[in-house]
Amino acid sequence: MTSGMDDGDSNDKVAHLVVGLFLCAFGLSLLGLTVVRIRRLMRSASDASVLRRFLAAHVPERSPAVLKTASISIGGASLFGMTWTMLGARFVDRDLHPDYTVFHYVTHLAALAPYLFVGWTGWLEYKRCLPAESLRAALAVALWAEALLWA
Asked: pLDDT tens track of the chain, all 151 residues?
């Protein structure tokens, strides 16, 4: 027989597993895209300036499709996480986990909010309302904010 605390812990673990799997898949997809681009460039290049040409063409990301997909993925995953946290606070974990106070859920929402900002910034960069590398700068701010929360 399990206690209510175990049910809340397992729900929390599933939520963290989903977020972790998304972040791993997202990072691996961008890494795979980079490898494909480097291989394509290496096949067509005959001189030693391959890295310089690659960096000039792909850093910052200039593909509108990649910017659009990245911003929608990050923003959508953040909204999903925030919604899941709020639903869990209201319905799933209600009266099941005595250690979970409102601050537990507010902390989770505060950790997800900067990534919603990253998705929005990427979307504005995709629409050319913000300069290149805005998505990277927003991601740096989000990681810094998350580090402050954990500290």
From this structure: 444 444 555 656 666 677 777 778 877 887 888 788 777 777 776 666 777 777 666 666 678 888 899 899 889 988 988 888 777 766 665 555 566 667 777 888 888 899 999 999 999 999 999 988 888 889 889 889 888 887 7
CA angle 32, 36, 38 (to 5 degrees): 115
- DSSP category for residue 145: H
Alpha carbon separation from 90 to 1, 9, 51, 136 (Å, rounded): 24, 16, 51, 34
DSSP 91: I
Cα 94 to Cα 79, 101, 143: the distances in Å are: 21, 10, 30
Collect all residues with Cβ–Cβ distance below 8 Å to 135 and sequence separation of at least 6: 60, 61, 67, 70, 71, 118, 121, 122, 125
Distances (CA, A) of 115 to 21, 75, 76, 77, 125: 16, 7, 10, 9, 15
In angstroms, the CA 68 to CA 7 distance is: 37
